[in-house]
Amino acid sequence: MAIERTLSILKPDATRRNLTGAINQRLEAAGLAIVAQRRLRLTRSMAEGFYAVHRERPFFGSLCEFMTSGPVVVQVLEGEGAVAHYREVMGATNPAEAADGTIRKDFAESIEANSTHGSDSVENAAIEIAYFFSEVDIVG
Ligand code: IDP
Ligand code: MG
Questions:
Q1: Secondary structure (DSSP) of 8-55
Q2: pLDDT exceeds cutoff 90 at 1
Q3: Ligand 1 centroid vs 19 CA: distance in angstroms?
Q4: Taking the model in full, what pTM does it have?
């Protein structure tokens, strides 16, 4: 399998509960290297742009409100098959359906406040990484 990069976001419910270190420990233990990382507060337009694919969904407004409710940590993760691997490490979108030992099972508060974002394809990972990082910010 190829070395890939994926875009991760530690969401406001995670930063609010001081879970950045605990989640990062899971990532590194799973063989996902944090090759870029930045903490910021998303503006409404940044959140709407990032989640534009979901703009027709009923939860879009609430999701953007939540994503701007506190700081986030945006990260680039690198490793073997990192896109699919991180999706496995995160678990299902709804923590009630997430497998034991996954980040969302252990940390998520709800289907919306589910602690982490991970890109869903290599193609989207490249787009999402470029949304937050320049190539010079990523040190593998
Ligand atoms: P994913 O994060 O597992 O890829 P998506 O379907 O891409 O899930 O949804 C993006 C985000 O929107 C989720 O991580 C979650 O925060 C939120 N979300 C998804 N489905 C719902 C829902 O049914 N109600 C409220 N929020 C949702
Ligand atoms: Mg998604």
A1: EEE-HHHHHTT-HHHHHHHHHHTT-EEEEEEEE---HHHHHHHTGGGT
A2: no
A3: 20
A4: 0.98
